[in-house]
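Hi R.,

Here are the chain sequences for the assembly we discussed:
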Amino acid sequence: MTSAAHLEYVLRLADNALILGQRLSEWTGHAPVLEEELALANVALDLIGQSRLLLSHAGKLEAAGRDEDQLAFLRADHQYRNLTLVELPNGDFGRTVVRNFLFAAFQRALWEALPGSTDLDLAAIAEKSLKETRYHLRHSAEWVVRLGDGTDESHARMQSAVAFLWPYTAEFFTANAVDSEVAAAGLGVAWADLQPAWEAAVLPVLVEATLAIPAQTAFRSCGKLGTHSEHLGHLLAEMQHLQRAHPGAQW
Amino acid sequence: MERKEWPLWEVFIRSRNGLDHKHCGSVHAPDAPMALQAARDVYTRRQEGVSIWVVQADQIHASDPDAKPEMFDPADDKIYRHPTFYKLPDEVDHM
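And here is the predicted structure of the full complex:
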C-alpha cells in the first residue's frame, strides 16, 4: 500500500466538499427566498467543515508541513482532485438543487461505507459527516420532487438540469488505480462499488418527480484525476485571491 | 404572470427535553414538510432546538385586540385567585 494512493483518496473527498461548498456559498445574497438562502448556506458550511477536517488529515498523511489552509488556498487547479460535477457553475436554482441531490446521494453512500475504514481518522470524519449529508439529501430530494412535478416551467428547468448534469455522474464510478489500492488495503471503499446504493437513492426520486432519466453516454469527465473543466480556474481565482495577494494573511 | 406567494407558517421550537415549545418566528414554505425544513434551517442553526412544530398561520384564531377591555381587564381586581392567601405547611417549599 503506497501512501500516495491514500493521500490521493483523501484529497478527492476533501476537494469535492471544498469546491461544492465554495460554489454553494455563491448563492448567499442571491437565493430566491430567504429560507432557501439559509438552507444553501448551511449546506455550504457543512461541506466546508467536512473539507477542513479532510484537508487537515491529508496534510498529516502528506507529512510535508502543509496545513488545511495551504492545501485549500495554495494549490493550482491541476492539483485539485474534485469531481468535475462540483465545479460546474450553479446555473439556475433548479440546476443547483439537482446537483446537490445527485452529489448528496453519492456522498451519503461514501459516508455510509467509510466508517469501516482502517484509517480511523477517516472513519470518524465519515461518521460525523453522514448526519449532515443525510439532511442535504433529504432537503434536495424534497425540492427535486416539488419542482420536477410542479409547473410546466419548473418541470422543464429540472429536466434540462438533469440532462445537463447526468453525464458528469459517470465519473463518480469510473474505476482507477487509487481506488483499487485503497480498497485492497481496507482504507476506503472503491467508488465504483457505490453505484447500486447511489442509483437506489436517486432513481426513485427522479421517477416520483416525473423526470426522465437520461441514457448513459460515452462522455467521461476526469476532475478526480486532476483534469478539470475551464470553470475550476475561475472558481479558484476568487477563492484564493486573498491568500495569493497577501500570503499568510489571517483575521 | 400571476405571482403566488407561499403560505406563512408559525414556528415553535422546543429548546430542551422537558420544556415546552415556544413561538420563535415564522417562515414561508409551500407545504408542511418544507416548512419544517425551512424552520430547521432558519431557527436551529445555533443549537436552539430539539423539536419543531409548524402551524399554518391562517389556521390560528387570535383574540380581537379591540376586545381587550372585556377580555382581560376583569381579571385585574381578582387578586384572591392567586394561591398566595393559603397557609402552607412548612414542609412545602417554593409553591
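Chain B touches chain A at residues 6, 27-31, 33-34, 37-38, 41-42, 45 (CB under 8 Å). Strands of chain B lie at 8-14, 22-28, 51-56.

Let me know if anything looks off.

Best,
T.
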